[in-house]
Every structure is written in C-alpha cells, then in structure tokens.
Automatic annotation (TrEMBL), chain A:
Keyword field: Cytoplasm, Hydrolase, Nucleus, Protease, Proteasome, Threonine protease
UniProt protein name: Proteasome subunit beta
GO biological process, one term: proteolysis involved in protein catabolic process
Origin: domain of life: Eukaryota
Family listed: Belongs to the peptidase T1B family.
Subunit structure comment from the entry: Component of the 20S core complex of the 26S proteasome. The 26S proteasome is composed of a core protease (CP), known as the 20S proteasome, capped at one or both ends by the 19S regulatory particle (RP/PA700). The 20S proteasome core is composed of 28 subunits that are arranged in four stacked rings, resulting in a barrel-shaped structure. The two end rings are each formed by seven alpha subunits, and the two central rings are each formed by seven beta subunits. The catalytic chamber with the active sites is on the inside of the barrel. Component of the proteasome complex.
GO CC annotations on file: cytoplasm; nucleus; proteasome core complex
UniProt cross-references to Pfam families, sorted A to Z: Proteasome
Alphabetical list of InterPro entries matching this protein: Ntn_hydrolases_N, Pept_T1A_subB, Proteasome_bsu_CS, Proteasome_sua/b, Proteasome_suB-type
TrEMBL record, chain B:
Name of the molecule in the record: Proteasome subunit beta
Gene3D superfamilies for this protein: Glutamine Phosphoribosylpyrophosphate, subunit 1, domain 1
Species: Sphenostylis stenocarpa
Coiled coil region boundaries: none
Subcellular location: Cytoplasm; Nucleus
Keyword Coiled coil listed: no
Family listed: Belongs to the peptidase T1B family.
One Pfam family per UniProt: Proteasome
Length: 271, 223
C-alpha cells in the first residue's frame, strides 16, 4: 500500500489544504486575518555608520493590536534589522538568521558581516517564493564599512544610501528625498530619521505611536527604544469609572452529577 | 460558468465613529472629524454632524458622499414641512422621515450609518439608531461607525443595568448630568482612538438642551 499523504520529507510548506480552504471561502467562510505590522521603517547611511528607525504600531486589520511593539530586531552586535509585513514572519526570520550568524561567528572567529546576513535572509525568502511575508531594512557596520540594504518578500535586495519600507514608506521617502545628503553628522541623521518616521506615523493609518531609533557605528551601537513619544493619550477621566463588581445572579439550579453517572471501580480508565 | 462580478464599486468607506447619549433634559451627539480612505487621511477637519431641525441633530459615518446627499434630501424635506405646517419637525417625526428616506433606496442603499439625537416634544433627550437601510429604534444611547465595536460595550457597562429584571432599570434616558455625559463621551473617543486606526484627530461634541445648542471640540491622537 503506497503512502499517499506523506508530509514532504524536506520541510517547507505543505499546500495540501489549499483546495479545502478555497472551497470554504467559496461557501462564505472568511479566513482569519494575520497580525501585520502596518508600519513605517527607514534606514540611512551617515558619516560614521548607519541609523535605523521604526514606528511601534502593530495592526490587525483596522484595529491596533499592539501600541508599542519592537520592530528593530537584533541580528548581531553590529547588525540590526527593521521588519515590515506579517509580524510572525519578520520575528521568525530575523531570529533564525541571528542564530545562524552567531554559529557562524563561532565557526570563523570573526565579526559578522552585513552581506552574510543579507545572503542568508534572501536565500530563505526566495526559497519560500514570497509566502514568508517579510520586508526588511538591514543595516550594520562591519570590517568593510557601513552597509544598508532592503530585502523584499520574494527575495530581491537593494543596496542604498537611504531606504524606507512598509505602508508608510511613501510618506517617509518623501522626507528623505527632500532632505537627505551625504556625510550627515550623527545628530542630523537622527533628526532626519525621526522626521521620516513621524511623516509615516501621522500620515499613514497603518503606522503610529512612538519612534524607535538605532545608531550603529564602528565598534559601537545605541538602541534608542522609544526615542520620541509624540502621541500621548489625550483624555482620561480624572475620577475614573465604577464597574459593578457583582455579576447578578438571576437563577440558581444545582444538579448533582453523581446520580447521572455510573461509577466503575478500578480498571475503567485503562485502554 | 460563475457570474461575472463588477470590478468597480460605487462605495467607499471614509471611516470614523459617532456616538449619541440621551439625558433627562439634554442630548449629547458626538463624532470624530477624521475623513480617510484606505490607509490615507483625506482631511483631519471634517464634520460628520448636521443639524436637521431645531431639536434634531444627526451624526453619520460611512461613505461621506452618500451622507452629504442624505443630509441634503432631509434638509430639503424639512423645509417643505415647515412651509406646509408652519412649524419645525419634532425629533420623532424626523426619525421616521430618515427611516423612510433610507428605505426608499433599499436596493442601492445610502452607505451611511446614522445616529439621530435631539429633544422630544416633552423636552426629554431622545436618541434613534439606524442601519444602512432604515431599520430604527429609539434608545438611550448608541454608537455607529468603525469604532462602534470598541465604544458600545463600554457604554453598555456604564449606562445599562446588568439585567432588565433588576430595579431600578438603568437603561433608556441616563440619570447622568450633562457634564458627566460629555465627560463620558470624551473618554470614550480617547479610548477608541487608541485602538481604531480610522478614529482620531478631533472630536466634535454637540449638546442640545432647553437653552439651545452648544458645540465643543477636543483634540485626539493624530497618528
């Protein structure tokens, strides 16, 4: 008897249930939505290294699921990666490559290079043909200098002096295109990154809340979580609200279950 | 061969939330002022509230082009009523007119989610809540729009008794004072703004009472 429903031995996705899902959708069942990060993420190269920036809103459709999530992920002591797209995908892929980089560091005895992270990420994403919905801005400083790359869900990459990704990327890019110049100082660079993220936060509904910044230079990195908080809650009733502590009991009926069940001593539970 | 469906829709959703609360001798109607389409903001300063008569104020969220058309139809019909009857329409009368107007377009509806607030002929607050095709009910409070799923449970908790069997029943016209009701509305919008991307910018609050009509604005998160 030949096995017809074996799981694919080499891993990867199994598309067995696609026909059944399509049939259910035709019958009117709505598929569950994914937690996407809406998002504005940016990166730029300045005089001494790279600066990455991100907003902190995670959305599930029109609802804000997390008002203060972390979108700048650690890859290596000298490399960080911002992620847009499906939150689970960006987390999983950055954690995975971060572990691979650490093992590689032990193997080679050297500091990780940005191009290594780039290649590991793009190979993985291409392998999954765009089904892993992660759009990344990868930046870091290694022995060969500062680097900034963008990586798309299908696996293509770009190497750029300044980059933006996510639903707020157009708003952020408009700021960069107007104001970017080469050899910015650290303060000018941070100011520009914050301006670009704020453009995304205020003009894109998928992005919001706070600004996270990460500055990477040769031999040193600064992860500035919640660098700017431009969106405090506007009103909270100073007196607070009363919530009825009791649940009103309308009817009490107690049925002892012992009378309804046969209790067999000893081996009743054994297979 | 499955039927070919249109790849163009005449509707769009401009987002936003509306709330109305009826009191013993006042009525509070509020709506945010953000107008959006998809992930973009069209304007931060758009009023979704329209005064249809002396004692009737309507707040509508949904497709604002349809809302504007609806407001024009109602205001024209009210003018005719005034010419024919030599008086303003009462709030319950306006409520019925709105329902009929919506049902008139049952097979190509106004994509408008309305909440009508005002004072009835006895001077008590009244709120009427609608669906897109005109089904309506007089209630003590209501919310519509993108943030309604976030706002309604909180209003139920604060304004409704847990069970109708318990006396005194807290439903219908709330015993809260006008200032407390306005405070509640501000809190409710600040909370909805935190979690709904389509609600924000500013909230416009209209208060109707025996002395007339008053308008208040409060800033909300702009992100």
């Amino acid at each position: 008897m030949s096995p017809s429903l074996d799981l694919p031995p080499k891993g990867g996705f199994s598309f067995d249930l696609c026909r059944r899902n399509a049939m259910l959708e035709n019958k009117g069942l709505k598929a569950p939505t994914f937690l996407k990060t809406g998002t504005t993420i940016v990166g730029l190269v300045f005089q001494d290294g790279v600066i990455l920036g991100a907003d902190t809103r995670a959305t599930e459709g029109p609802i804000v699921a997390d008002k203060n999530c972390e979108k700048i992920h650690y890859m290596a002591p000298n490399i960080y990666c911002c992620g847009a797209g499906t939150a689970a995908d960006t987390e999983a892929v950055t954690d995975m490559v971060s572990s691979q980089l650490q093992l590689h560091r032990y193997h080679t005895g050297r500091e990780s290079r940005v191009v290594t992270a780039l290649t590991l990420l793009k190979r993985h994403l291409f392998n999954y043909q765009g089904h892993v919905s992660a759009a990344l801005v990868l930046g870091g400083v290694d022995i060969t200098g500062p680097h900034l790359h963008t990586i798309y869900p299908h696996g293509s990459t770009d190497t750029l002096p300044f980059a933006t990704m996510g639903s707020g990327s157009l708003a952020a890019m408009s700021v960069f295109e107007s104001k970017y110049k080469e050899s910015l100082s650290r303060d000018e660079g941070i100011k520009l990154v914050v301006e670009a993220i704020c453009a995304g936060i205020f003009n894109d509904l998928g992005s919001g809340s706070n600004v996270d910044v990460c500055v990477i230079t040769k031999g040193h990195k600064e992860y500035l979580r919640n660098y700017l908080l431009p969106n405090p809650r506007t009103y909270a009733n100073p007196k607070g609200f009363e919530f009825p502590k009791k649940i009103e009991v309308l009817l009490t009926k107690i049925t002892p279950l012992k009378e309804k069940v046969e209790v067999i001593e000893g081996d009743a539970m054994e297979e | 061969m499955t039927k070919q469906h249109a790849n163009w829709s005449p509707y769009d959703n401009n987002g936003g939330s509306c709330v109305a609360i009826a009191g013993a001798d006042y009525c509070v109607i509020a709506a945010d002022t953000r107008m959006s389409t998809g992930y973009n903001i069209l304007t931060r300063d758009y009023s979704k509230i329209s005064q249809l008569a002396d004692k009737s104020v309507m707040a509508s969220s949904g497709f604002q082009a349809d809302v504007k058309a609806l407001q024009k139809v109602l205001s024209a019909r009210h003018l005719i009523y005034q010419h024919q009857h030599n008086k303003q329409m009462s709030c319950p009368a306006m409520a019925q007119l709105l329902s009929n107007t919506l049902y008139y377009k049952r097979f190509f509806p106004y994509y408008a989610f309305n909440v009508l607030g005002g004072l009835d002929s006895e001077g008590k607050g009244c709120v009427f809540t609608y669906d897109a095709v005109g089904s309506y009910e007089r209630v003590g409070y209501s919310s519509q729009g993108s943030g309604s799923t976030l706002i309604m449970p909180f209003l139920d908790n604060q304004l409704k008794s847990p069970s109708p069997l318990l006396l005194p029943a807290k439903d219908a016209v709330t015993p809260l004072s006008e200032a407390e009701a306005v405070d509640l509305v501000k809190t409710v919008f600040a909370s909805a703004t935190e979690r709904d991307i389509y609600t924000g910018d500013k909230v416009e609050i209209v208060i109707l009472n025996a002395s007339g009509i008053r308008r208040e604005y409060m800033d909300l998160r702009k992100d």
